[in-house]
Amino acid sequence: MDYVSKKMSLLDAKPIQLHLLKTITEDFSKKLKIGSGGYGEVYKGVLNGHEIAIKKLFPVHGVDDEAFDNEFRNLKKVQHKNVIRMIGYCYEIAHKDVEYQGKLVWSQVIDRALCFEYMKGGSLAKHISAESCIHNWPITYKIIKGTCEGLHHLHKGGEKKIFHLDLKPDNVLLDEELVPKIGDFGLSELFGSSYTHQQSSTKGTIGFMPQEYIHNRKVSPKNDVFSLGVIIFHIMAGEKGYSDYWDARRRPNFSPKIQHKFIESVQEYWKKKMETMEGYRWDETDLLGVTRCIDMAMRCVEDDRDKRPYIKDIINELNKLDSEVSEMLKKDPKPPIGQLKRKNRVNDLEAVKQNKSFKYLGKDIVVDPSQELCFPFESNKNTLVENRALVQAGS
Fold it and tell me: N or C: which end of the chain has fewer CB within 10 A?
């Protein structure tokens, strides 16, 4: 197996034979299956002593060819700490005898698979409860910034820029240290310097696509920025928080005052959440971080794409935030902290590792109603999907 180094540190993905993938996945057995999607299924295997994830694409002609090509070409040479690393691939053509109209004929069978570093933390979606990211604020901020840095690397590119076009919590993976890495590039595309492109069809995930793409199939860097904003909203306020905000913005009485009250609600939620962490001092540095991140998310999900920031602007804002926080801590350092533990709460991270549903987290404890995330406006009876369907139908 000289195509993969002992520590799998090669900069370029190498071909891996199908028979080897079958061996390390026990012929793609159900017990080693760790996920599935619209284009294929994902299995866990061990190669040279290291766990890897193998995405085997479904044998559907045309659709998965495009998905395979997109992911393979766009990820083959991408190297960044916040983008999933492809370590190998398989593309083999064989012939199998099948019966057709009473006769045995030869049928062409194409097997395609992509191999990635295995992410023990699973998808970001598993780390988000109904209210927010389940982790403390320092870790949550690390996840937000890391995701932004990964997207920035894709957008700045070289001659060609990569637009992901399907960013969502399910497609952001976390390693054992909770470092985020953007993955699943099945819908991604390479673009040159032109700002706007138009696609012949709409592909993506409802709720994470901007209006200009839903209605006119227009593609620009701002598509991914919109999706990033939705992700940050989910991280900071949960899906319901984003749903309530999205619904409120479409009401005639929406105003900057309501927007400000929403920010205050998010600030108060994180303050109370962190006050339940033993040994952590919530202070102005945390408040500043929460405020900047939720404000940034609001600007990212603007309907008018020209009002959304570029990812490079977001990175500049976060770097500036880090500098400000660093200066503030020099004047008033936080006391040293060990592993943060939530008072009287179950271990959320352990629940993630055990694949427990979030609806069962904390069922054995009494939850303080004051720690629930509340917003300064009533939610509409329509669900988020219904609301979006109404907007789309009205266009």
Answer: C
